[in-house]
Amino acid sequence: TFVVTENCIKCKYTDCVEVCPVDAFHEGPNFLVINPDECIDCTLCEPECPINAIYPEDDVPAGQEVFIALNAELAKSWPVITERKDPLPDAKAWEGKPGKLKLLER
Ligand code: SF4
Ligand code: F3S
Questions:
Q1: Which atom in ligand 2 lies closest to the alpha carbon of residue 54?
Q2: How far apart are alpha carbons 16 and 82 in whole angstroms?
Q3: What does the pLDDT average to over 89-104?
Q4: For residue 4, how far is its CA from the centre of ligand 1 (angstroms)?
Q5: Using an 8 Å Cβ cutoff, are 17 and 32 in contact?
Q6: Looking at the CA of 23, which ligand is closest?
Q7: How far apart, in whole angstroms, are the C-alpha atoms of residue 104 and residue 106?
Q8: Candidate from 14, 16, 44, 82 with most ligand 1 atoms within 8 A of CB, to mutate
Q9: Which of 83, 78, 105 is nearest to 16 (CA)?
Q10: How many CA atoms lie within 13 A of 36 on its CB side?
Q11: pLDDT at position 69, please?
Q12: How confident is the model at residue 14 (pLDDT cuts 50, 70, 90)?
């Protein structure tokens, strides 16, 4: 499966959602996740993210392994998103900032 990682938090560009053939993306207040039970590893979403927040499960950046379980957990309660929308208002300022996990809203 593919996994959305920390850099998405407080940015949420949503370019990724429109290419998914199985509607695997779920939306929270300031982050998206991929449902591992739906993802078919097509790879299409990975290059769509302008800030490289999406990785294959076995290739998530060091220290971000927690996001594998977080995607699975949050996908159970968050609604599916299939259409692109505007990024969060301060997305540009939050790109690439470390330590965003503590800012994740559920
Ligand atoms: Fe959807 Fe393909 Fe991305 Fe999996 S890899 S979330 S199936 S677009
Ligand atoms: Fe997040 Fe990138 Fe998609 S910022 S919403 S994973 S395009």
A1: 6
A2: 9
A3: 97
A4: 10
A5: yes
A6: 1
A7: 7
A8: 44
A9: 83
A10: 16
A11: 98
A12: very high
Cα separation of 45 and 52, whole Å?
10
Amino acid present at 75: A
Strands, E, within the chain: which ranges? Answer: 2-4, 25-27, 32-34, 54-56
Q: Supply the pTM of this predicted model.
A: 0.98
> How far is 101 from 25, CA to CA, in rounded Å?
19
pLDDT at 66: 98
Give me the mean pLDDT over the 61-85 stretch: 98
Q: Which of 10, 12, 33, 48 to mutate to test the pocket of ligand 2 (most atoms within 8 A of CB)?
A: 12
DSSP string, 11-77: T---TTGGG-TT--EEE-SS-EEE-TTT------SGGG-TT--EEEGGGPPTT-THHHHHHHHHHTT
Ligand number, closest to the Cα atom of 42: 1
Q: Is the CB of 74 inside a 6 Å radius of any atom of ligand 2?
A: no
